[in-house]
Amino acid sequence: MSKKQKKILLRIIISAVLLIGVYFIPLEGYLKLLLFLIPYAVIGWDILWRAVRNITHGQIFDENFLMSVATIGAFCIGEYPEAVFVMLFYQVGELFQSYAVGKSRKSIASLMDIRPDYANIEENGELKQVDPDEVKIGDTIIVKAGERIPLDGIVSEGTSMVNTSALTGESVPRKVTVNDDVISGCVNEEGVLKVQVTKEFGESTVAKILELVENSASKKAKAENFITKFAKYYTPCVVIGAVLLAIIPPLLFSGLWSEWINRALIFLVISCPCALVISVPMSFFGGIGGASKCGILVKGGNYLEALAKTEIVVFDKTGTLTKGVFNVTAVHPENCTESQLVEYAAMAENYSNHPIAKSIKEAYVKNIDQSRIKDTQEVSGKGVNAVIDGQNVSVGNDKLMESLGVNWHPCHKIGTTVHIAVNNVYAGHIVISDEVKKDSQQAIKNLKKEGVKKTVMLTGDSNAVGKAVGESLGLDEIHTELMPADKVNCVEKLINEKSEKGTLAFVGDGINDAPVLSRADIGIAMGAMGSDAAIEAADIVLMDDKPSKIPVAIRIAKGTLKIVKQNIAFALGVKAVVLVLGALGIANMWLAVFADVGVAVIAIINAMRALNTNKYLSN
Ligand code: ADP
Ligand code: MG
Predict the structure, then answer these.
(1) Label partner for 45 (CA 20 to 30 A): which of 34, 213, 277, 371?
(2) What is the pTM of this model?
(3) Cα(129) to centroid of ligand 1, in Å?
(4) Which residue intervals of 77-179 are DSSP H helices?
(5) What is the pLDDT of residue 235?
């Protein structure tokens, strides 16, 4: 319990004891009123104060106002104990709510408990623990078995299994060894690892994820905004209703004034909209927390809402539906040797992050002497140009060759062909091929099950390769040989095709598809384990590379929205019934407070169910 909560609890106890004491003192008239005002002031001064302050700020109709008017009114008609009790019970409810909210926030925070406390560095042969913030790029840190990896880096010594479950929800640890990348936030399970740090803590995967989750609450879903707006109009309406209820019946039917004022006050207490105002954002918060347990980071409630209505899913090919890890299947040099051709290609690709570049560098095996490379230029959707040993080397697809006027020719082998030209003279090509991810096909099937009407693949790769991959996966539409700008056009066309309320999601790996990620209704980035661009440009980030997480995300979104709707319907329903009972004079003040606080508590407990997302993971 926080300090603030303890203080309120203390006030509740003092006020309750005073109330009981005062109740048994046999006094009448003003003295009695004065005595009851003591426990009232103890428990209610802050509510009264807030009501006054908000009125001076022009925000008249909030729950503080409702409670103040209702209780002061009760004093006016001589219902002293009731007045104090209503305030007391309201505070008990508030305390309970703040406790429940705090608790669920904490449980989400502990899910995201990936912030490392320290990093081990070696100094004069001794291990020293330092703040991860103090470690610089290029430093070597030591991660012992059982410790969380504090910073992103490359393993320079040791072999181990690392557990990535906090980031991806994946329970099977992955094996890492020398030269493998490791990501902060994962846990080293076995051996000792020496890791050469590649990013400062502020730029590390962990820091980025934490920032993202912390900011997610600021992106409101439509339902949340609706509730805020609704409360703004709803409360004054209720106040007017209460005033009419207090005045009209006694005037028309010469009823008892105090009787109708009492009913009006009860009406006011019941109408407090806090159950809605609290439980709707709580449900979204729960859904976001639950999704992150499955390795799906959602940047705001609005994206969960959009995801639940997904009608079209558009995939990038390389690195999204395929592994993005190419094997070299043929090297066909012209006027040079095979090893020369691969060397040119690898050096030109040295600074590129494209999956093709990574694969060619891997095929080269040898270390690259960076001093021989000058002026690298990446042409997105086409390839790279670089100056190597003073020669202009171009590596890329037929479009790149055409644009340079190189006399290239196609290859008979099926696969992605990477052409190489030196000083604009054709030097041959390397054929590489990618593998489809294991779960791509299942992902497409499950998307259909979730009611997605159309699945589309976009790729910059050749028609032969694109068609082969797309058809084997059963996609509805396949578009090939696209430049990044063409992908944006394609997505725009599809957005026009879909129905008014449906949404379009684009799934990419964040490498040269950032414009499309931001153009789509929902941008989903794959494999945050590798690329920073992905975390920035996307609305939803899948921590692992699995396309099968997309239908899971849709299920979570639908589940969350269902809970939101249940809460709205439940709260409004109970309120409506009790409001009618109150107007008819059947409900008393006790029932009114109970309806308000009770509904809020039940709605919050229901909202917590959104956190429970494990059930969505199974196939
Ligand atoms: P995808 O749509 O498959 O993700 P991209 O738009 O990233 O493909 O790239 C389209 C095509 O451009 C690739 O298939 C490749 O032929 C060429 N290309 C892009 N970047 C590079 C690079 N760094 N090296 C070689 N070829 C490249
Ligand atoms: Mg791509």
Answers:
(1) 277
(2) 0.76
(3) 43
(4) 80-111, 165-168
(5) 76
